[in-house]
Amino acid sequence: MKNYSINLGKDISKNLPEPKRELLLIVPGTVIAGFDLKGITSEDMVINEETKDIDITLPHAKLI
């Protein structure tokens, strides 16, 4: 077995079996994403008067 080490301010050492060379690295952080609602048109909305429901197709979220 080989010993793999990553230094992110802390010593993170894991023994990985030789045939498996994968490592899951979890790093704390914050991602801010949102929708640009300016691009929504009336074609993106379906209004049901009977049930008083509005279905809105939102654009894909983007990183801000």
Brief descriptors of the model:
single chain; 64 residues; mainly beta; two-stranded antiparallel sheet; elongated; DUF4230
Structure write-up:
Helices cover 0% and strands 38% of the residues. With 64 residues, the protein is an all-beta fold. The chain has one domain. β1 (2-7) and β2 (11-16) form a beta hairpin. The radius of gyration is 24 Å and the shape is elongated. The chain starts with a strand and ends with a strand. The relative contact order is 0.21. The mean pLDDT is 81.
Order of helices and strands: EEEEEE
Number of domains as seen in the coordinates: 1
Shape verdict? elongated
Tell me, rounded to a whole number, the average pLDDT.
Answer: 81
Distance N to C terminus:
42 Å
The low-confidence runs, each spanning 5 or more residues with pLDDT under 50, are none
Rg, Cα atoms, Å: 24 Å
Number of strands: 6
Characterize the quaternary organization of these chains. Answer: single chain
Q: Note the beta-strand portion.
A: 35-45%
Q: What is the number of helices?
A: 0
Helix content: under 10%
Query: Which structural class is indicated by helix and strand composition?
Result: mainly beta
Let me know the largest β-sheet. 2 strands, antiparallel
Short description:
With 64 residues, the chain is mostly beta strands. It has strands at residues 2-7, 11-16, 33-34, 45-48, 53-56, 62-63. Pfam families: DUF4230 (PF14014).
Please describe the topology of this protein.
Blueprint: E1 2-7, E2 11-16, E3 33-34, E4 45-48, E5 53-56, E6 62-63
Antiparallel strand pairs: 1-2, 3-6, 4-5
